[in-house]
Every structure is written in structure tokens, then in C-alpha cells.
Amino acid sequence: MHVSALGDIIARIHVKPRIRSATVVPRPGEEGRRGARTERSLPGRTRRQPRPVLLTVVVADDPWKSELSVGIDGNKGVLHYSGEGTPPNGVDSENPAPSNSSPVIYYYVSADTEFPANAEIPFSTVEAAVVEYLTTEGEQPAAVDWQTTM
Q1: For 12, 37, 62, 94, which has the most beta carbons within 10 A of its beta carbon?
Q2: Which residue range is the domain that position 77 belongs to?
Q3: Would 9 be classed as within a structural domain?
Q4: 52-111 confidence digits (pLDDT tens)
Q5: How many domains does the chain divide into?
Q6: How far apart are CA 61 and CA 8, in angstroms?
Q7: Global pTM?
């Protein structure tokens, strides 16, 4: 994958269209029938809270060298790096000024992954770290503060 395409991929994941509300309209001939649908707004039923997603990035030429897990949740995200020179469980991103008081959860397919409360960082930092990871052939991004994964 070319790094220039990375921004497009992240943008597609980052900016998902969301259903704000829906209107149910009766079918022709159903007006006035018992049980017929009537026009009404369903804002509470159609709103879905987007779940924080987690994806894995590796360098295609050497996928066993290192791995960068990238979590995206709107304007923030998390990172987990494991590779040469890291502790056995890898390292997580660290925010010196955390906005959470409890651990955060990101979802990879149907599995949930817990990160420390101070692991969420701005999305712009997440994006810069992914670009750095790919352009340095899988080296640990220096643009991020890291903490040992427990």
C-alpha cells in the first residue's frame, strides 16, 4: 500500500455516515388500515452509537518484524506497538493529560480490547504515527509517548 492512499483509508474509517433519523411512510393503499404504518419520526430508534474500531497495520515486506494496532474513535484514538526492542506485551500510546478516568475499549471484529485510561490521544497524532510506521518500514513511531502494556 502506498502511504498516499493511507489518508483515504483512514478517512473512510474515520468519517462514517451516520443515520440521524428516519421517517416511516404508509404504503399506497394502507392508509387508514388497522396496523398500517403512519408517518412518524424515529430519531431514538435509528441512532446508533459508533463503536471505537481497532485495526492492525503491518509492513507487507516483513509482517513479522512488528505490528501496530490502531484504534479510531472519532477525533481520538489509541495505538499499540509490538516489535523489536519492546517489552514482551508491547507498548501503548500515552496521553500525559488523559480525559478518561477508567480504561477504554476498542473493538476488533467482535473482540474487545481494553486500553489504559490515559491511552487515548488526538486523531492527528494517531494518523501521523501510522504514516511514520509505514515510512520507516515498521519502526516504533517516535511521534507518540509510549507506556508499557500491562
Answers
A1: 94
A2: 3-17+49-148
A3: yes
A4: 999 999 999 999 999 999 999 999 999 999 998 899 999 999 999 988 899 999 998 878
A5: 1
A6: 22
A7: 0.69
Which amino acid, 97?
Answer: A
Quote the crossing angle between the two packed helices 123-135 and 3-14, to the nearest 10°. 150
Q: What gap in Å lies between CA 103 and CA 105, rounded to an integer? A: 7
Instruction: Name beta bridge partners: 112.
Output: 107
- What pLDDT, in 10s, does the model give residues 95-138? 999 888 999 999 988 788 999 999 999 999 999 999 999 999 99
Is 55 inside a domain boundary? yes
Per-residue three-class SS string for 3-47: HHHHHHHHHHHHCCCCCCCCEECCCCCCCCCCCCCCCEECHHHHC
The H-or-E segment that residue 130 falls in is helix 123-135
Sign, Cα dihedral of 26, 32, 36, 39: positive
